[in-house]
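Exam revision sheet. Question 4 asks you to relate a sequence to its structure. Input first:
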Amino acid sequence: MSRLRLNLKLITLTVVLDLTLGNSVDDCTTRSNLHRPTTSAAQRKDVKFNVHGLVPSVFTAFHDDYSINYDVIPAYAKHLAHSNFSGILVGGTTGQHMALSLEDRKNLIDAWVKVAKVEGLRTFVQVGGAAYPDVMELAKYSEESGADAILTLPDLYFRPKTIDELVCYVQDVSNAAPKTPILYYHTPNATNVKLDMPAFVAAASARIPNFKGIKSTSPDLEEEVQLRKILREDQEFFRGGHALIASSLSLGGRSFMTPAITLFPRISQDLYHAGLNNEVETARELQKLLNMAVEAHLTEGPFNPTVRAGLEIMTGLKMGPPARPLRPISADAKRRIHDRLIFLKLTKSIDTISFVDNLFKRQSPLGMLVARSCQQSISRLIGKMVSFNFQGLMPAMFTALNDDYSVNYDIIPSYAKFMADSGMKSILVGGTTGEHVCFSVETRKKLISEWVKVAKPLGLHVQVHVGGTAFPNVIELAKHAEKVGADSIITLPELYFKPASVDDLVFYLEKVAKAAPTLPVLFYHNPKRSKVEMDMPKFIEAATARIPNFKGIKFAVNDLSIAKEALKKHKEGQVMFFAGDTLVAPAVLMGIRCTMCTSFSLFPRLALDIVQAAEAGDVKKAMALQEKLTQAVEAHLAEGDWVPALKAGMELATGLNMGPPAIPNRPVSPEGKQRIYTKLKQLGLVN
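Answer key, structure tokens:
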């Protein structure tokens, strides 16, 4: 882009921001006050930030049993300090903190900050990729621990759709750590948040006093130039990824965050200084060498498992396997990586590395094979005994909140009774409608326990959603659901380290199923929100073959032709829940016998009447009733996003006050709620 076009873009951006932001001090005042800062805006403007250069993203080391290996951190930090890096990033994609529990993340922050200070390294901590309250707690904890800066991802499930929503989220993180520089972590391929970053940075800079910049993995170099023009002297743009270091340097870039530089510090430093000194040809050749070194790893698998194996090869630091749900590479793959690095003259002979440490050292291969075979036989026998013969409607439950955003547990008994009295035989707890992905693990466990305790005596089948959080939390929730007496569980896929294949997805579900072996386990297919697109017929076949207690899927895609194909792959004793509020009648007329929708909570009698008419073959009546439900749903969606809008309508339709949506969702305006009421009254659905 020419300089003239770029400047015109920036002028337009400034005008738009002046018009949209005005003199607003805080556009997030309707949100929770739980994280309001104790420091003034003027004090937060005095937060200093002057870090640039090479900042490696650090891996998290694990033992073979997947417990964290804290013992390796001092040697790891020393290696980084001796390589003359400006700082370290803890908890990013490389560190896999999104796959760890809250306590593990806090312990790692503590360990790294303490060691880094001894070595003279500045510590950046990434706190995002968790439920909203956990993100706030991690931000506060990072500040108290002495981190030098904090980064955050956006919310991974209820993704921001506008710049204002994203600014509000980052502002909340800032409020939790008002004395610490805050940066936004923009990785659109992983988060699927693809907003206008120059507009966001301008808005965040205007509204968040301690907002100090952005890390971006976007390959858009034009966007990088725009961002660096907008950023102030006390703010910084960090390019993520290794492949564009030379290109960024040629355009004036000076700061980089990537794990690749940890493995190859000398190449990285030489490349960096060649670029700063305008030695273009040298920088280009070093960039080519760095790219080839990384590619030597990626031919053997995904980035994290392969590059962490490479770190062992290059440094001798024992990093262990990647955090689940990622899987380690084989010993043969590691050997091939080593051979390629030898060819590139980047490491020593293969004889200096041990590839199969302690392999089968406690048991013979035959003994391990027999033990594994017995374990699989027992697991399959238990799985075959798990039955799931559900048929009918399953309404998704909202989570009622008080005005201070605390959970209103007191409403659960009347809510459950309303469902039972309306003719419903089952409920889904903790799905998208229930917003459990926004809550801490302890809150989710308490909600599960309360719902099971109240709903079971009413004869309601209780299905619990356990996904949408870090893998160890998913396992903990699955075990808890089984322990307290839930009837079945369902899970989303991993939201950050997304499965790349059907096999990856089955591997993930298999681990969840083993955590609750006596319960039916279902998969929640909602690609619009999870951004995991898989061939469901193939997945169902593979999951059925490998997971004894796999009992079906929830299909949240409004395409009945694909739904029909997926339904055909289900075996006897398995079910497919179709989740399309505006297509209930057509789905039943096509032979789909199980539906799971949010609107069933608001209009249970209408939903039952639709199904009854469709099953009786009364197409005209079924479609007329469906049209009424569709208009009711559309009346809500005209006023806001799915959960906030229908949550507002719940009180209008049933008298049950659900309160505000969970943060980061934002409530419908009073005027919008009144318009919903007017439309529902016209439809004869409220008095």
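Marking note for examiners. DSSP finds 29 helices and 16 strands in the chain.
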